[in-house]
């Protein structure tokens, strides 16, 4: 998979997942999720765009935090929501 040099990587910092047990909003709402994404700006854990409520994408849009990383075991890829590309 090709990656790009992305200026949004400047906002990436070491983060602690705020809800390591699952999507922050889905845990509160008792909603199911498919896969999880970790915001690399603030540590928000949200569900992916294949999940019913798409909390990771909503968080990126409302908070302006562009880069997420897969929060699935064994995965480490990163995605820029602004450029819609792997980084």
Tell me the number of strands. 5
- The neighbouring-strand order within the major sheet is 2-1-3-4-5
By secondary-structure content and strand pairing, the structural class works out as alpha+beta
Assign the CATH superfamily.
Answer: Zinc/RING finger domain, C3HC4 (zinc finger)
Please outline the major beta sheet: 5 strands, antiparallel
Question: What fraction strand?
Answer: 15-25%
Average of the residue pLDDT scores: 93
Q: What is the CATH T-level topology?
A: Herpes Virus-1
Provide the helix percentage.
10-25%
- Show unreliable segments: none
Large-scale geometry: globular
- Determine and state the CATH class: Alpha Beta
In the residues, how many domains can be counted? 1
Structural descriptors:
globular, 87 residues, 5 strands, five-stranded antiparallel β-sheet, Herpes Virus-1
Notes on the protein architecture:
There is one protein chain. With 87 residues, the chain is of the alpha+beta class. It has one domain (7-86): 2-Layer Sandwich (Herpes Virus-1). The chain contains two helices and five strands, in the order H-E-E-H-E-E-E. It has helices spanning 24-29, 55-63, and strands at 36-39, 45-47, 67-70, 78-80, 85-86. A hairpin with a 5-residue loop joins strand 1 (36-39) and strand 2. The longest helix has 9 residues, at 55-63. The model has no long low-confidence stretch (mean pLDDT 93).
